[in-house]
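We store chain and fold; thus.
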Amino acid sequence: MDLHQAKNKAGRSADRTAQRAADQPALVFFARAGFIVLGVLHLIIGWIAVRIATGSGGGEASNSGALQTIAEAPGGRMLLWIAVVALVALGLWRLTQLVIGEEAKDKAKGAIMAVVYLSLAFTTSTFARGGSSSDGETASDITATVLAQPAGMVLVIIAGLVVLGVGLHNIYRGATKGFKKDLEAGAGAGHVGSAIIGAGMAGYIARGIAFAILGGLIVWGAWTNDPEKAGGLDVALRTLGAQPAGALALIAVGIGLGLYGLYSIARARYVRM
């Protein structure tokens, strides 16, 4: 057996191993639960955003703020440990896409989303252990550290443009119903209710607006050498709320984020895994 044949055999073996892992009932069950966790977090972030807009409360409109809200609820820390397991499972399931994904973009998306979910699982475990963190402070600290490096401003601007691109892609995905095929792949064409599609449209557009603002703030923070401007989702939403008619805009985005939460919960049922 030559080297090329050995590599092909190893590749096929890795594919089979990844496919078996992706098909494990326990992994699939908890990975679907991971989508529910994401949905709940977005519902809480949307609720916090609306409270900020109406002046009826506050908190940090971010994953950390949502996790803190859950941690403070009766039995919240136990629920967070369940969320950790679900998010780890979702991250591991995404990692299988690196091997069994048919297209390069599927592999790249699998890698990126795996990092996102596993990082969120780590943050969730911090709150489950009774600790705390702030997305805004973490983002500002990272930005400040990068800005202090040679070519740091360029790197932060590039990061901001990437986040801006993600935001614009989300807006496009929501406006064109580009997410619909993900649901129909598991449920079948015509089996996804119009309410779920509507929630997905509003949700993706709202997330897109929030991330686009965040990306712009990161670029501006780099340009002005002010890392506080790159303070995460909470800063982006509060910046939106501070504009003329910003309260109404923030309410609309908050509701949209909540609708994305409902869409994500529905996704747990319909997405093909």
In short: The two ends are 35 Å apart (CA to CA). The CA atoms of residues 43 and 124 lie 16 Å apart. The chain is about 80% helix and 0% strand. Residues 25-270 form one domain.
